[in-house]
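Schema walkthrough. Field components (list of strings):
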Amino acid sequence: MSDTPEPAEDLPGDLPAAQAVPAKRWQLPLVWLVPAVAILIGGWLAIQAFTRQGPTVTITFQTGEGIEANKTRIKYRDVDVGEVKKVEISEDSKSVIVTATLSAQAREFAVEDTRFWVVKPRIAAGSVSGLGTLLSGAYIGIDVGKSGDSRSDFVGLEVPPILTEGQPGKRLVLHAETLGSLDYGSPVYFRKLPVGQVVAYDLDKDGRGTTVTIFVRAPYDKFVTTNSRFWSTSGLDFTVDANGLRFNTESLATLVLGGLAFGSPEGQAEAPSAPSGTEYQLYDNERVAMRDHDTTVEYYRLVFHQSVHGLTVGAPVEFRGLQFGEVSAIGIHYDATTHRADVPVDIKVFPERLRKFSRTLPAPGTASAEIVRGMIAAGLRAQLRAANLLTGQLYVALDFFPDAVKVKTTTSAKSKAGSPQIVSAENPLEIPTVDGSLNELESSLTSIARKIDKIPFDEIGKDLQTALRSLDKTVKNADVLLRQLNEEVAPELRLTIEEAHQTVSRAERLLQQDSPLQTEMRDTLREVGRSAQSLRTLTDYLDRHPEALIRGRTPEDKP
Amino acid sequence: MSASIGKSEDVAAQFPPHSAAHLGLTGCHACGQIVAVGEHHHCPQCGSAVHLRKPESLSRCWAFLLTSVVLYIPANLLPIMQTTSLGDTQSNTIMSGIILLWTTGSADLALIVFIASMVVPLGKLLALVVLLYSVQRRPLGSPRQLARLYRLVELVGKWSMLDVYVVTLLATVVRFDAFMSVHASSGALAFGGVVVMTMLAAQAFDPRLIWDALEERGQKQPEGAG
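Field assembly_structure (string):
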């Protein structure tokens, strides 16, 4: 615009007039919509931010490892449901308190039995989990409880639980003497299929065993019945006992990780499915687990007067070859007066096992003591026999020995005569013993050895030597003789043989068919024959006319 | 007091005597044709809207200012950028980003971001408020100073978008998906809104009103007005 003000008169008169447009109706300029919209949006965002806030919870952990304020998230089934806002040390400096806010959708998560744990990279029981957290940082896992009571302060778990709520299956409680190599997550097998895991374990309060909680997934949980048996399959099962050598392993995984398996004993009727929470005993191996657990136990004492080397506690006790018991204790008893030491061996037998095979065995009862006494009178004795010549292990055999020495049965405690004794562990019935067959073998071998020992090998040796020496001399002489024979006698012999040969050939010539000798001989024989004939004639005549000897022959008698 | 346009002569009389508006004349923004104007008008040459002063300048300026203030709150509260580095995701608001830069040793970067993201928008807002206040109530400076202020606002306006550019560029360039990646968050949107609104507010303000107000108050500058 110019500096000099000019009146409007200078302007040309024919300036175009702008076209008039009627004024709009709106009072308020439309532009105010813009801030209105902005305020609305802002307000909506603010409201959303407030409503998205869920409850605030505090979780106590032992360590704040991996947890960062405003960064660490809480995830449920890997979905973000909250964030950690503050991490601070507790007042007694023993734990770490983590304050976190959950999102609105997680409002129902803050209940009584909800559990929190930190998900960090973890190697346990054959699985490596949480590797993603190596890069992204740890997060807090949450397992929502089903309770209805809300709760805002929790104690976090130090170890992640194996399973989350809502997984179908059964929880079972097992009692074991030792944990073996089981750990969180060790697999549970059924017919060699992994069907569950170890969820928790703890030492019993009295320190005498452990309690292991396992979880068997559906649909395999229906195979856990009231007569199922559980056994540990950790590592290898290697036994050398009276029955021989045994080597068993479940799978390569259990070699490293440990595990346990379950099954039902053969031949039993179908049992109902066991409810969740049932308690079982965990055995050391399948063999022990499947053994029939016998209800009646009877106790006997056997006093051996020989060495029991090779007999161990647990060695089998057989009756006529059927195993029905085991050795429970081996002791020694020294009698100071007679200076003799005997070996009392306590055995426990399970008559149920024999009953399994038999139809004629009597039913159990307190009269079993009488029955046994009867059998002892009939010759029942206990003997140690070699189970395995290789390892030298022995077992106890109860058998009938008809020519055994008769004994009077006694119990080791005083008893009233005639009253039936209850055979118990403190009051075992004594079964007399005979020396083991192995012992006899031993003693005969010993005596043979002794006899062999008595043989005067030295003298024999010496005599043999002398004989050999003389033989040597004889041989030498014979040698000389032979030489003589060869040199002197032999040529003579040859000459003799030649002469003999000549003689034989001469004789042969002589005796030939048409040799003169033969001819003459024939003639002579002919003559002799004629003579004999004549003589016969004479004798015949004389026979008829014996007087002819004196008178001579009459002319009529002349032939 | 908005510069509402009534009948031409009354309207013209409102304006300072040395101005074209006083004569009822104005130039068309589009084609430059000098037009005698009354109420709402259109240029006879090109047809675009023609007015003595920017219509509803003050209300629009206030509206846009208010919007930008409203949007400024979420721009600072919501995260502007998400950085994922080796699986570790970090969300940053403008302030937290500045603090992060400062504490990790890039003080110069922190300063730049602070100026671009905090000082400039707030400064613009403040300047516009001053201008509006000066026109509507009491001038807080001489017209020359106010005009200078206005020019500053317009100049700086170009650079207000710096922060948004930074976020956008980072998001596009840093894309090593597994190792590092940057994503813009809702705060960037809000901040962009703030900047746009301040720009619109600056554009809506008609600086000629400064002298109109002077005239109304009867304070005439000896240098004259343009």
